[in-house]
Amino acid sequence: MILDIRYWKLVNLEIRKLKKFLSFAISQFLFVVLFGILWSNHVQAAILYTSTANQVVFDQATFITEWYLDTQDDEINSVALNLTFTPETLEVLNVTPADTGIDLWIKNPEEDNERGTISLIGGISSGVKDAKVPLFRAVIKPKQVGKGKISMDTSSAVLKNDGLGTPATLVFNEISFNINPADARPALVGSPTHPQQDEWSKNNKVIIQVMPKPGEQYSYSFSSNIEMIPGDLPSDVANSLTFDNLADGIYYFKLNSKAAAGNWQEAAVYRVMIDSTPPQPINAAVASDPSVFDGKPFVSFTGKDQTSGISHYEVRFGVGPWQKTNDTVLRVPGLVLGNKVEIKIVDQAGNEEVTKVALPKAQSTPFSNWFFSIIIIVVLLLTALAVFWCKKLITKYRIK
Amino acid sequence: MAFFETKKINLTIPREKKNLLLATFFLALFSFIFAPVALATDYSSSSFIVKDSVIDEGSETSTSTNFGLGQSIGQLAIGKSTSTNFQLWSGFQYYYLVSANTLTATAGDSEVDLSWTVPQTFLGITVDEYEVGTGTTSGNYTFENVGSVTNFTKTGLTNDTPYFFIVKALSPGGNFLVFSNEATATPTGAANENGGGSGSQTMGITFHGTAYPQAKVFLLRDGAPRASITANSLGEFALNSYGPPPGNHNYVIYATDPNGVKSKSLNFFETIAPQVIIHRTNIIVPPTLVSSHTAIKQGDPLTLSGFAAPNAPVSIHMSGTQAGTFNVVSANSGAYSYILNTANYKKGQYSAVSNELVGLYQSQDSLSITFTIGDSTVVVPPPGVCSVRSDLNCDGRVDLVDFSILLYYWEQFAPFKNERVDIDKSGQVELRDFSIMLYEWTG
Questions:
Q1: Do B404 and A300 touch (CB under 8 A)?
Q2: What ipTM does this complex have?
Q3: Does domain B97-185 sit in CATH 2.60.120.10?
């Protein structure tokens, strides 16, 4: 009897040990599975982010947001973004594909302030895999004190460069801005050389002027890196500050201030935008296809500007006038005086680059040849004169 | 009664007849102005010239050392002409119409790759062959017949010298039909891109790596071809991009093997800064991989083959209904192949990729291929001009022109005038079609 009890105690002990072991093993297994799911999701999702999410924002004072894509472990080749923002508190002044990684645009970045949307569709030939693929830049102006938000619509998509157009998961954490009153800015900063923070300039010499308040010390930084912050040593800002021979880019003059017994705090941020470089030469082609424009020839082109972004295109066929356009596929007119088409790309700073593409010779009508053009014009004039003279004769010699 | 009586003659032309006469006159004038101009070729010898001869399409031409004469001599010459080799067309002859084609030129090392579209023709004329014109000044060319191809590599050129090219399309009778546009390219040693920015060699990026022996290796920047080179017998290549504008650029490298099969593209997203040259080395272009059949009867042999670096271990990974990995070694020429015994595999859909080991470096996977093991056999046709899905205009390239065609039909629904534009056959031209085109981009 005693033996039986001890035996069963041993058995129970072993069973309890077994249960403990099984519980431990199952929990470990679940942990690994859960971790793997979370990790795999984290690895496979592309991430949309902006580099200026944390800047201090004041009412009516514009700020810039630069938008990037982290493709994570995927090779991505196409992006369709639909962002929404609070139109009652934010106004998007413009969106430009400046220094973008996108080669080809189906739909250039554009804003709609009534609906509160920013949208684009673009692609990267042969795909890209990078943690920081620049997409576009937006200049935003707060409209009133309060909170401004930007979020991503679920219709946004990125597709993998796998030959199948497989969608990749895209994530974006909604960003919000606390819009402070305009008079809350502690100090005034201006620039006689670059008076408008929202405008690009070709001038690469910058003068900054600070209007300090009595009893305060200041330190400053001037950099194209928005993350740079001034040091703790006071600087003399009573006189103008000059920065010369600057490379193209966006520069931030940051001013920190400190009262006598206080701590350093941000006083002002002044933005200067410099672009003195023309856009890249345009990639253009003249072609025809039976299924496009009823087989009539067309010109197609893409352009890129590394700094300020494209403002617009202008196109001229032969010796005709320049025509402003935002379309990148244009039908060649039926009559062209001249044998080339010129495409001008203009960036936000007004720099220009012109590319010429020859029109196929036999595609031109007789009007493309100067000599024939003159002959045709003369013939037309003679014809008109002949008709007029015939009518006069008919009237004059009508004999009844 | 007056001695002389003026008799009035009614010369009034009825209104209807007057209108008819005027309409006829203007119709004739309109037709004259807008009738297509048939470009004619002058024939000359040391002693005479036949100007603006009316050209008729025939099967043969008469030639001598110094001139060629089309067959429609009946319209020009008087007297008697006899030959056993020509026909005399009498009566009114119509003038055919040919639309010009598009020529593109890509510079390489002492050579330029030319490719062109086929001219569109009307009223019965056809294009038979082409002559490529080459010159060092615009408008001044020396022509050579290249046959009925749509691409040609002009070799033996001087590096850093701009060349001008034009393509002349000829009828079966050897008559001139139409010129393409003029294209220009400057071959450079070591396949350099110089330009887009300052052209300075103190700023840019270099690429060194291995493809396959005698492979054509291409460099694209921001979607456009910038340089190309033929790899040496070891498959080694060097491509440079000097002086692009500072900023972000998307570089792509891909190769085409001796059979014209394109490799998977390698992309490099780089930030170019002044006074900095980036060096990318040990680049291994993924091997090419093709299948002898798209569908094979179970039990019949299926050949998987391609090109890789010479004497390199190549692994072929098959997946689908069943999986398998096959290891081979490429030959000196870079060619490799594996014969799959389909009797050992179940019927179903399969896909395969290959990769190679070059020294210590593993390449990325090749482009994926698919095939079916089933009850019937379908041989893969040799690569042709229209063999790539995204080549919407069938010029052998996937480039800006194809993108333009896609853009023209963007978000439209079937049916399409150009059925190829719906690349994924979903019935609508949308983002997935765009993605597939970018995947197959050649620039």
A1: yes
A2: 0.75
A3: no
